[in-house]
Structures are given as structure tokens and as C-alpha cells.
Design the sequence.
């Protein structure tokens, strides 16, 4: 019998367990046959498959397998040569990537008259099954005589219950959690809900474009990195390409389809806070006129040196932070100043203490680097997560800021350092590892530091702040989008209502702004300026949210006057990239902050997440700040938690008091 099956590469078995049974009768009170088999999780080219095979099942025609392009389960059958009566249009070629099966084609099982939809399955005498974990919706856990699991796919298909007569159910679920997020259903404690967004979060955008369900016509060619970047591209550019293809007419998508898509991308996100318990209803407030503010010149090396005493301690930290906030830094100052702003060095440390910190941190860095450098090929073959991290890093590094001279050209040493630092960060925080987009956060830091070790520890400090943005639950992104919505309603209720009416209340178009702190929206030098301003912690907590408000404020009139709808808003915001004036944005952001602080009866949630109920940092030379908040010489610096890690390695006496003293409003 001829075969048309191709095996591309050898799959890797992540989990395998025998002694797993299917009871042929669903009614446990009746006599039933026990079908013994083995359960496997197979990793192939970044995809995970779950497979159950009876030990005695030697006939591949009984194999049920999920289609590559569908979540339905289909029936393996032999070719038309063995079944000449089969209609030609039922024959589909199929290439399996996970097993060598003596089958050459498959078709959906024909339904009898009156039966259900096209995904109906007749399980009679067909006990083997396989599915992609991305097609899995839920797992029902039954505690009977033996632990029992029932898989339900996204198309509603319920696969045969499998019974673990010899244990192994917990180990199976633990292995499955490496590929998907599993959580208990709030409605039924026996049901586990499977979320695959964390894995999709790391898929390349090129793979997403293969999904014809969203009618993609062509890739967005304007920026290759944007086109191939996962993570935030999944939300912004993914949707942008879905609705706008260059040179083509806009094709509308149903609003409910967009809502479903966004719900899958950011599970749990709900912008309509008025319907959520624990949130205040924000009504129109008199915010008064905005103050016109002016920016100053960047801090020079000479000015920076004036704030260092003879032993290297920084004097009057609040004042120097205020100077940095108002004008930024000259580039020659950044290499030293960023280490303080990011918490790598404490502000009150001496030259000698900083040498000790640097020596200790250098030793620690190279110990971690040696961990992944010394892993053999055989070891890495058995570590799928490390392989995935390495693969993503190699792809992203080759696309990161290649138009910058520091990273351009082949065999660029800057790219090699970028790769090594990101790989070492996987050893530092293996649970998070690497997620696409993190290279964007490291690139400017390495560019400024020009030193592998210093860049790594500054990146670690930055990631301490940004960590929740990249976690599987994406709690940081959900929180920030909710907070931004709250601010926008406070500042301009009419504009917020307009966006809501255009089904843009999710503010998904700000996702990329928040995820990597405007890295893809501004020219490289402007990113350096914006980041150092934000790292001062002035003039309030979460100042980056006010930057978003300033950017939206500049575009709101155009959006409303031109009556932009959902598609036009998304297109317009995406096209702002590289067209923004950083100094204008910073002036407006600061003005908005002053306006909010001068407002009476602010919503409590706004006071909390902007940190307006905390005592700010102080200088003996300043009794009050220009923002109208009293300061006391006894108050410790309002640094962020980024400096907490400095207490390790024997430098706890250098650690500053760090706290914001407020909580973030979350959906309960």
C-alpha cells in the first residue's frame, strides 16, 4: 500500500505514562471493557500535542486526530485505493509532524441524517486520539476509584474519559502547564479552564498571519520587525493587519468578533469599571486650566559632578532628580547616572562601595552566564523551555534596532552582547525566561552602558518594574489599561465616551505603548530621554500613564472631528510611530499632572495609582516642590522597589528606604 505521509523532524516526548485506561462503557454500573494505553505530550517545532494510544491498537485507521487547520477531530482512514467508493472531494492530504502512522489521508466522518454539526464524532471502537493543546478548552477532573480526566476541545468535542489506574494524573497536568495556563473554573471546582494566550504571546507574527480565519490578505510590510514580533504585535499590529492592509480598502469586522479577540488576548480585561465592584464611578470634575510648563537643558557632566561629595556620595538627591526630570541628561552623563536611576547603585554609596558592588555583581553575572554556556547539546535537547528561549532570543536579536550603528552589520559585537545578556537573564529568572519584546527594553540600556555586566544589572532593575507586563497572566497590562481608562475619563469624559461608542474603550491601541514604554513609538534618542525622565519617579507615580494621556490628548480633536471609527482610530494611532515630539509630549504630561494635583475631590483610585497620597522625596533646600506637595528633610527618598535587590551580596547597609505607599486598583 503506498503512503503519502512525510515526517519532517523527530518529535520530542515531553511526558509519557502507561497504565492509562478508557472504560468502554460510560456507565460505571454496567460491565465494560478496559482499553489500556499510554498518554503522551509531544513537543514538535514549538507546538505541543497530547496523544492517547491503546497498546493493542495496531490499526491506524482507528486513529482520531485534530486537524492542523481546525479544532475538530477527524477520522483516519485508508486511501481511495483501498476504498474506491469514497468521493474524491473527501480526500485530503495530511502531513503529520509527530508520529509515523500507516495512513495517507483523512476525512470527516459522514453524519447520518439528523445528526449534529460537522464536528460530530462517532467514538465507537475508536479509542485513540490526539489534539493540539491550543485546541483544548477545559479538563474535567473526576475523583472516582481512580483519577479520571475528560478533555473538551474548543469546538465542543468531549474526548473519551481516561482513567489513571497506576497514578500519573498530577504529573501529566504539571507537564501540560508548561505549555498552557490552567486554572480552576469559578463555576465548577472540578473543571480546569485552559488558557493558551501565554503561548500565543510568544508566537511569531508570521505564524499568526497564516490564520485565514481573520482574512489576512498580506503582511504589513512597512516594518519587518513589527511584522514578525509577537507579544504586543499580537494585539496592535495583529489587529491592524486584520483590518487594514496597505493599498486595500478597509474591510469591516463585526464588533463582537473584535471583543472576543481582545478577550482572548488579554483575558480578564474589562474597561467598563462602572460595572465592576470596588471601582468608583468617575463623574465630570472641574479640573481647571492647565499650567504652561517649560523644559530645561539636559544635565551636563559638570552639573552632575557638583552633586557628588569627595567620597562619591550623591548630595541633594531630590534636586538632581528634579533637574533630570525637567531636562534629561547629556549623553555622556547617562552611563553613570542611569546606574543610580535604575537602582544598580544606591545614591548614598561611595566610590569604594560601588567598586565592591560591581565586583560582586560581575562574579554573579558570569556564574549565571556559565550555566547556559556550559549546557551540552544533549542537555539542551531535554530542556524544551531553554530551547524555546534561545530560539526566540536569536530571532529577536537579529531584528532589534538594526538601523542603529551600535547594532548594524553582520557579526556585530553589540548583537552578541544583546544575545548573551538575554540568555543570562533566563538563568536569573527562569520562570519568566524570555518573552518577545524584552529585547526592546535591553537595547537602549546596552547602548548606553557599553558594558555587558552593567547593562545586565540595569536591565534586571528595569525588568523588576516591567515584570508583570510579560507574565502569563498579563496582570500588569490589564492593570495599566484600566488605570489609563480611569485617567482618560477623568481628564476628558467626552473623548472617552466617543472612544467607547466606537468600540475602542478597551484602549488596545495603547497596548504597545505600555508594554515596552513607547520604545516603538519614538526615535531611539527620544526613547533615552523619555526613559530617564520616567525613572526619576517624578512628578508622580506611574507618570507613563500621563504620557499616554498627553499623546491621546494631542490626537483627540482629529479623531473626533474626522469621525474616526474603530478601524480608523487603530490605523491613526499606529501611524503616529516616529512622528512624535518628545519635548512637547513631556511638557503636556507634566501640565496634566499639575492639573490633576490641583483638582479637589479626586477619585480615590486615581490618588492611589498616581501615588498622590504619599509624602514625596525632599531636599533641605526645598520646602515645597513646584507641584504643590509639602516636603520634609526627614523624609526618605521616594525611590522605587528597583533597589531592593541591592541588599543581596552583603550590601544591605547601602539599601535605601523604598516604597510608594499605595496599592493599584485591580478588578476583584
Sequence:
Amino acid at each position: 500500500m503506498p503512503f503519502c505521509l512525510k515526517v519532517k523532524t523527530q518529535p520530542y516526548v515531553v511526558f509519557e505514562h502507561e497504565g492509562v485506561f478508557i472504560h468502554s462503557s460510560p456507565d460505571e454500573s454496567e460491565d465494560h471493557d478496559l482499553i489500556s494505553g499510554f498518554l503522551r505530550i509531544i513537543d514538535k517545532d514549538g507546538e505541543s500535542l497530547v496523544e492517547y494510544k491503546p497498546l493493542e491498537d495496531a490499526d491506524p485507521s482507528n486513529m482520531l486526530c485534530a486537524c492542523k487547520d481546525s479544532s475538530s477531530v477527524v477520522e483516519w482512514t485508508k486511501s481511495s485505493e483501498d476504498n474506491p467508493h469514497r468521493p474524491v472531494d473527501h480526500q485530503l492530504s495530511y502531513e503529520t509532524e509527530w508520529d509515523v502512522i500507516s495512513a495517507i489521508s483523512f476525512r470527516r466522518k459522514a453524519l447520518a441524517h439528523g445528526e449534529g454539526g460537522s464536528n460530530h464524532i462517532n467514538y465507537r471502537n475508536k479509542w485513540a486520539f490526539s489534539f493540539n493543546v491550543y485546541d483544548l478548552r477545559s479538563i474535567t477532573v473526576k475523583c472516582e476509584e481512580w483519577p479520571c480526566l475528560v478533555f473538551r476541545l474548543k469546538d465542543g468535542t468531549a474526548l473519551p474519559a481516561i482513567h489513571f489506574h497506576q497514578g500519573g494524573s498530577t504529573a501529566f497536568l504539571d507537564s501540560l502547564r508548561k505549555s498552557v495556563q490552567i486554572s480552576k473554573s469559578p463555576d465548577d471546582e472540578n473543571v480546569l479552564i485552559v488558557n493558551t494566550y501565554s503561548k500565543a504571546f510568544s508566537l511569531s507574527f508570521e505564524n499568526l498571519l497564516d490564520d485565514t480565519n481573520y482574512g489576512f490578505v498580506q503582511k504589513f510590510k512597512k516594518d519587518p520587525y513589527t511584522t514578525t514580533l509577537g507579544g504586543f504585535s499580537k494585539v496592535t499590529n495583529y489587529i491592524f493587519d486584520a483590518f487594514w492592509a496597505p493599498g486595500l480598502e478597509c474591510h469591516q469586522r463585526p464588533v463582537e468578533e473584535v471583543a472576543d479577540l481582545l478577550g482572548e488576548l488579554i483575558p480578564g480585561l474589562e474597561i467598563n469599571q462602572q460595572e465592576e465592584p470596588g471601582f468608583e464611578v468617575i463623574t465630570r470634575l472641574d479640573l481647571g486650566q492647565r499650567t504652561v510648563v517649560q523644559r530645561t537643558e539636559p544635565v551636563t557632566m559638570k552639573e552632575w559632578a557638583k552633586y557628588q561629595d569627595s567620597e562619591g556620595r550623591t548630595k541633594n538627591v531630590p534636586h538632581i532628580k528634579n533637574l533630570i526630570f525637567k531636562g534629561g541628561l547629556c549623553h555622556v552623563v547617562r552611563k553613570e547616572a542611569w546606574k543610580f536611576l535604575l537602582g544598580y547603585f544606591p545614591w548614598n554609596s561611595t566610590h569604594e562601595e560601588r567598586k565592591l558592588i560591581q565586583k560582586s555583581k560581575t562574579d554573579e553575572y558570569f556564574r549565571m552566564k556559565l550555566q547556559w554556556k556550559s549546557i551540552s547539546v544533549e542537555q539542551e535537547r531535554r530542556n524544551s523551555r531553554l530551547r524555546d528561549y534561545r530560539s526566540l532570543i536569536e530571532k529577536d536579536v537579529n531584528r532589534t534596532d538594526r538601523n542603529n550603528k551600535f547594532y548594524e552589520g553582520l557579526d556585530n559585537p553589540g548583537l552578541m552582547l544583546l544575545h548573551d545578556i538575554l540568555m543570562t537573564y533566563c538563568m536569573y529568572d527562569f520562570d519568566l525566561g524570555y518573552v518577545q519584546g524584552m529585547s526592546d527594553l535591553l537595547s537602549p540600556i546596552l547602548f548606553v552602558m557599553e558594558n555587558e555586566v552593567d547593562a545586565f544589572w540595569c536591565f534586571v532593575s528595569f525588568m523588576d518594574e516591567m515584570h508583570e507586563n510579560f507574565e502569563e497572566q498579563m496582570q500588569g497590562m490589564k492593570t495599566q489599561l484600566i488605570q489609563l481608562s480611569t485617567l482618560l475619563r477623568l481628564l476628558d469624559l467626552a473623548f472617552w465616551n466617543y472612544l467607547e461608542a466606537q468600540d475602542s474603550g478597551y484602549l488596545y491601541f495603547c497596548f504597545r505603548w505600555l508594554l515596552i514604554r513607547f520604545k516603538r513609538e519614538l526615535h531611539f534618542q527620544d526613547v533615552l530621554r523619555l526613559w530617564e525622565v520616567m525613572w526619576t519617579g517624578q512628578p508622580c507615580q506611574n507618570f507613563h500613564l500621563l504620557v499616554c494621556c498627553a499623546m491621546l490628548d494631542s490626537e483627540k480633536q482629529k479623531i473626533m472631528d474626522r469621525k474616526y471609527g474603530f478601524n480608523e482610530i487603530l490605523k491613526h494611532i499606529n501611524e503616529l510611530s516616529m512622528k512624535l515630539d518628545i519635548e512637547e509630549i513631556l511638557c503636556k504630561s507634566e501640565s496634566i499632572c499639575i492639573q490633576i494635583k490641583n483638582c479637589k475631590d479626586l477619585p480615590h483610585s486615581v490618588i492611589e495609582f498616581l501615588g498622590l497620597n504619599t509624602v514625596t522625596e525632599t531636599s533641605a533646600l526645598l520646602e515645597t516642590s513646584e507641584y504643590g506637595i509639602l516636603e520634609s528633610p526627614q523624609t526618605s527618598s521616594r525611590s522605587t522597589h528597583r533597589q531592593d535587590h541591592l541588599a543581596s551580596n552583603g550590601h544591605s547597609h547601602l539599601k535605601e528606604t523604598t516604597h510608594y505607599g499605595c496599592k493599584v486598583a485591580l478588578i476583584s
